[in-house]
What does this fold into?
Amino acid sequence: MPTLVVHVRLHDGRYHGEGDWPPSPARLFQALVAGAGLGGPLGDPVKEALRWLECRKPPLIAAPLARQPRRGVRFFMPNNDSDAIGGDPRKLAKIRTATKVFRPYFFDAAVPFVYAWSFSAAEDDGDRARTICSLSERLYQLGRGIDMAWAWGEILEDREFENLLARHPGRVFRPSAGRSSTTLPCPCRGSIESIERRYRAYGERFRYVKDGGAVKVEFCNPPRPRFRPIPYDSPSSRQLYDLRDPDGDRAFAPWPLERTSALVVGLRDSAVKRLGNALRARKAEIERVLVGRKPDGTNDGPTDERVRIIPLPSIGHVHADREIRRVLVDVPPTCPLRSDDVHWAFSGLDVVDRQRGGIVAVLTPADDKRFLRHYGLGDDGRYLVWHTVTPAALPARRRGKTGSARLSTEAHAIKAVRTALRHAGVRARPVRIRVQREPFDRNSHMASDYEPNRFDARQLWHVEIVFDTLVSGPLVIGNGRYLGLGLMAPRPSSDAYVLPLAGEGVPKQHGRAFVEAARRAMIATASHLFDGSVEPFFHGHEENLDPLRLGYHAHLFLSPECAGDRVRALHLIAPWLADRAAELAIPETVKHRLAQRLEQVAAALSGIRVYGPGFPDVVFSGCLPPVKGDGMFASSRVWVSTTPYWSTRHPRKTRDPDIDAFLREDVLLECERRGWPRPKITVTKVERRNARLVGELRLEFCTAQPGPLIIGWNSHRGSGTFAPPTGQRTCENSD
It folds into this structure.
């Protein structure tokens, strides 16, 4: 597929534009229009080419590495009050005022900006692309008026374009579908017409209106041009390597997990030596980027330019031995060294073990990169819950022998985890942090078992973090993140989530309306996330709007969590948790895919406001997986109603006069359909409502049963929820 490439160079190596870096595609589009309009009104072929360009997908951008000073330059300009100085230009200094502070970006003027659009090989598209190439030669500035520039365009094939990107010494920005810290305005359908409207309105912004005998001047702001914001991501260049047997049989040569730091130091020093011999003039830069060392030999500490060497232990199965068989080399986009040079330095390195002596492995580029999904680098690769595989190095604190001293030490470690996340560039907010010396996985090691390197055992902690939004990998935290410590792996997507409510929550009498409003918000959120396609998993209907009738429950259960007379949280529960028949009927691969989608929707609901009749707007303040063994997710022999149970059938006054017996029989049938054993049923309250029976129940099983227990009609919308009895639990009618 051909690619339209526009190269732009700024004459002075400075960019004074505000609000965007790199210069956005919208700026380039406006600059092309301005250059095309120098000779008069735009012709039809030019307009047709610009309309074609605005309908393309957002372009890929390659920009030179830049720096921006902390302090800018303040400019002083005379204001429009020359009458105060009698029109004397020699007195302009008296009416000068500070206008703006300029903080330009500085970069190498020899490195061009590159904007690339892919298009089809149709003849018309090729003609329009060539028209854009000719328009780019008329470009004369990009940014502010002082940012003089020139440009040229060309049409490249895929291989030529890939070689161009590989040779570019700057940073590559790619359009992203998710969140990003960089959002740039891009042309969209109607952009050229909006620019023309703005141009015409700019010439008519001043109007003279008679007001009696006086003439007033009215000012009208011209309309803004139409562009759409697009998130841009600048991913790191990553290469996965295998530790292979040096004898040539291509078998893995595992490295002990507790000696992670020794592996990183050996590989790092060998790569520094190889790269230093090849680039002798850049030895100081190599030391700073790979080791984090200043030219004077002192430690410069972690920076955004440093290369990360991340050993990856074998995980993904309960019987995995957690030994290191792979190494990931992560080159950040701001690294001054070319990524292909760094990867060349690591490829084929001999892994030397000083304890065992000799070469024990060879670093070989990996062909199969599917293993990376275990560390959040797969297709979606975004999760809520993360835990350490290798312990994180945190600032130590003196430990005591008492229980209060240990609690104080753990509180200090939790505080250090928050600081470590900020230093690692993680913008998501942790809502729950757990620290311990013991590992979270089987076959792993205690924190004290790892070779100390420059950290002692008191500084090493295993950490589990629950974030408020989805986080992608690789995630490495702590002071030892450049030595292979603090590597985190995601927990598999949960089958249920708790969405706490901010403030006082919702009154229980409006619980049913709240659940219905939350259900609509959930479906709208799923539609937004998945491009308008909402699966029956979220709403429970066929394409023709008929209810799903599969013989088991196949869509989400929404259940409110009450405290006193208020609803404090909402549970989103996968159907295979509440219906044991669905657990057997739904394939595991489908469960995994739906659980990932549930996690995305639950995380997106965090921070959303919900409105409904009878209650003010409330906000979901977070998203957490439930605590197993607590509340409705506990195991118990006795279960009591927390929301009323609605019968699945309509009783008749003549045939079913005993409503208690009818309700007990209905519950037994419902338990049988859901795969629960027959309980002993005690009806504590019952009444007729809308031709159905609504009651509060107490169920006693012969053996303890794991929750959640949600049964009855309308159970997908908050009714029929049970929980183990507690001393403070009361059940009121929330419908």
Q: What stands out?
A: Residues 727-735 have pLDDT under 50 and may be disordered.
